[in-house]
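Narrative of accomplishments. A recurring question from our advisory board has been how the design workflow behaves on a single, concrete structure rather than in aggregate. To address it, we present the structure tokens for one chain from the evaluation set, followed by the sequence designed for it. No filtering or post-editing was applied between the two.
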């Protein structure tokens, strides 16, 4: 008996060391991608069979299973362990908001302005995140032509003579709806989606597959436009980038099954091609039945598409000039720090500890996994590493690459923080948690500074110093009503915030004691912040648009913004609502009463269109005018709420483009020059 106790103690010590070594090893070691070996293996993954098993191996980090089985002998039978065990990734539908933010310096910020190399005209470009990394959008220009999506067509409009605009060409692919376009050096890329029924694939009982078609047109001669290349990927379109002519299209969806086989092919120029099982990669123990496909083509050479497929889902993506970061979040109950695990292990013993793990209380904290891929010169991808941290990102601007390091804003149950990783995704620094219980709304990285907005009843704007990347510090905080869902640099010392204005409501009991507080949205807000003193950010100007129902595409899509500091211009699509009523509240304990009980009500809708502002540091925001387009009642939604209205400028003229028409107005006074209707095309 004494010898057995000694053996048990020895094994316990070995296990403790194994936990430390195993987890530390997992944190720094680069894991290699594995290739699918057979269709049978792929089908097993599709059926969610490959990665099932006990959660114990994941938590204990590589403890010798034989030792566990020895110690567990006779307890609930044998311990079930598989070598590929892992926590199954959350299999929900991708849900990401595309909002906006940064590049590494203010100079690199794209402000919708570009000096043309192919045209003598000066014209705006799409509001992007990273300099030299173009993003697809629904409207583009090269200074002489406007390229835009109108229902199932992509229209090329000649705007060389603003007084006599004309449609030069209309491009379409039957069965496909254009989602995005890319413009590069005489090439027009149209990314389209079709929806095909399938009894093998369902989301909430809707049997729909999203296939992605990427068509590249040679438009160097507008009278003789021809297809340069076309391919179809059997997955859902997520996002795309163009870097010096290297086009990257990212798709993510569940694996597809066709005739009892997993779809491992794509179509290029009407020819069926195999992706190849060796090009379908996964990390050992982490393969899911979700696929992420990255398609790469060189627009300079018209080469065939290169496809890389990875067996994980994504909810976010950030692309720099040299790297792609793919982000996925999952719920994970393994949040206990290693030393807490050791403590529990020593106090409860192996059996008690394992039982505690198997019956762990789920805290429903999200954990974010970030996968890093290097973009090679030929467009192929090289896997670098992955990392996993507690919390989740809100959009692509939660991430930023700076001096080869990655900065990430993560939000969870404990609050929000910035975590910094080196080029191999090893964590090197982090701020403390901020604003526990508050939701993260926006982030902006500007060189060695960062700005974060969280919100509950007021809007804390945090200013963070990142100059020492191993020790980032929160230096300033500004609390004001409302919140910003998008932050955009005005210059290196000033920041524009766009979001919603709120009013705090205090509820008291019969004794006057505060029971609770809440906030009520009162309108859409734009604010200008002075951040020259990072220790003391201040709001120097604001304007509120409409009431609580007012919306704008800029609230969820940064590409809806047109901004130029030099021109003193800020313009966005807005669906403005404004109510004229007096509230008569009898029961303050019910917010709905406050919103529904009124004495008079005159207006519910005032304006819908493109709101053009003069902006400067002295006067703040001054509404210059509203450019209205005809309502497209057939589609049932508004310009402010949708992506259907964009603005751009060419020289001294402002062009506004919707599905139905294009208008051109003078920038100085917004007087109408001409308009061209598309609906009768």
């Amino acid at each position: 008996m004494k010898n057995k106790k000694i053996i048990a103690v020895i094994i316990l010590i070995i296990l403790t060391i194994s936990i430390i070594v195993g987890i530390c090893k997992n944190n720094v070691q680069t894991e290699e991608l594995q290739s699918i070996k057979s269709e049978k293996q792929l089908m097993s993954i599709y059926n969610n069979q490959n990665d099932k098993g006990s959660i114990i191996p994941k938590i204990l980090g590589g403890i010798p299973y034989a030792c566990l089985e020895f110690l567990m002998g006779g307890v609930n039978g044998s311990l079930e362990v598989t070598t590929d065990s892992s926590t199954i990734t959350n299999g929900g539908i991708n849900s990401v908001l595309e909002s906006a933010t940064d590049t590494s310096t203010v100079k690199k910020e794209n402000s919708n302005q570009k000096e043309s190399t192919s045209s003598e005209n000066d014209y705006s470009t799409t509001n992007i995140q990273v300099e030299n990394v173009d993003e697809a959008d629904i409207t583009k220009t090269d200074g002489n032509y406007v390229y835009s999506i109108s229902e199932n067509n992509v229209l090329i409009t000649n705007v060389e003579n603003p007084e006599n605009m004309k449609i030069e060409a209309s491009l379409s692919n039957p069965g496909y709806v254009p989602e995005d376009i890319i413009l590069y050096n005489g090439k027009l890329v149209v990314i389209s989606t079709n929806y095909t029924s399938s009894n093998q694939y369902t989301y909430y009982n809707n049997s729909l597959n999203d296939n992605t078609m990427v068509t590249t047109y040679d438009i160097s001669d507008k009278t003789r436009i021809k297809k340069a290349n076309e391919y179809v990927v059997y997955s859902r379109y997520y996002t795309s980038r163009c870097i010096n002519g290297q086009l990257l299209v990212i798709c993510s969806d569940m694996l597809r099954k066709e005739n009892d086989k997993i779809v491992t092919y794509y179509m290029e120029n009407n020819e069926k091609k195999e992706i190849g099982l060796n090009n379908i990669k996964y990390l050992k123990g982490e393969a899911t039945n979700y696929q992420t496909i990255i398609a790469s083509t060189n627009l300079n050479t018209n080469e065939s598409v290169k496809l890389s497929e990875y067996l994980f889902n994504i909810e976010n993506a950030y692309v720099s000039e040299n790297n792609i970061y793919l982000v996925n979040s999952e719920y994970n109950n393994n949040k206990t720090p290693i030393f807490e695990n050791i403590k529990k292990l020593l106090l409860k013993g192996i059996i008690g500890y394992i039982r505690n793990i198997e019956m762990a209380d789920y805290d429903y904290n999200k954990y974010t996994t970030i996968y890093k891929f290097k973009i090679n010169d030929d467009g192929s991808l090289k896997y670098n590493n992955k990392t996993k941290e507690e919390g989740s990102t809100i959009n692509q601007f939660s991430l930023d690459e700076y001096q080869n390091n990655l900065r990430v804003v993560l939000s969870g149950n404990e609050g929000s923080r910035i975590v910094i990783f080196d080029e191999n995704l090893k964590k090197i620094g982090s701020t403390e948690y901020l604003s526990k219980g508050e939701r993260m709304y926006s982030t902006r990285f500007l060189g060695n500074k960062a700005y974060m907005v969280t919100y509950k009843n007021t809007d804390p704007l945090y200013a963070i110093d990142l100059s020492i990347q191993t020790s980032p510090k929160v230096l300033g905080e500004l609390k004001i009503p409302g919140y910003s869902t998008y932050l955009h640099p005005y210059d290196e010392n000033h920041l524009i915030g766009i979001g919603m204005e709120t009013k705090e409501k205090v509820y008291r009991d019969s004794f006057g004691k505060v029971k609770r507080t809440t906030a009520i949205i009162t309108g859409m807000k734009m604010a200008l912040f002075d951040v020259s003193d990072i220790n003391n950010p201040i709001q120097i100007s604001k304007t509120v648009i409409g009431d609580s129902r007012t919306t704008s595409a800029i609230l969820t899509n940064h590409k809806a913004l047109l901004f130029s500091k030099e021109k003193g211009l800020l313009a966005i699509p807005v669906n403005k609502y404004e109510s004229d009523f007096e509230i008569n509240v009898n029961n303050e304990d019910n917010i709905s009463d406050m919103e529904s009980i009124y004495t008079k009500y005159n207006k519910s809708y005032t304006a819908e269109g493109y709101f053009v502002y003069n902006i400067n540091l002295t006067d703040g925001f001054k509404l210059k005018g509203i450019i209205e387009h005809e309502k497209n009642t057939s589609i049932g939604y508004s310009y402010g709420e949708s992506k259907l209205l964009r603005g751009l400028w060419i020289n001294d003229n402002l062009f506004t483009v919707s599905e139905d028409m294009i208008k051109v107005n003078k920038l100085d006074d917004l007087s109408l020059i001409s308009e061209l209707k598309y609906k009768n095309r």
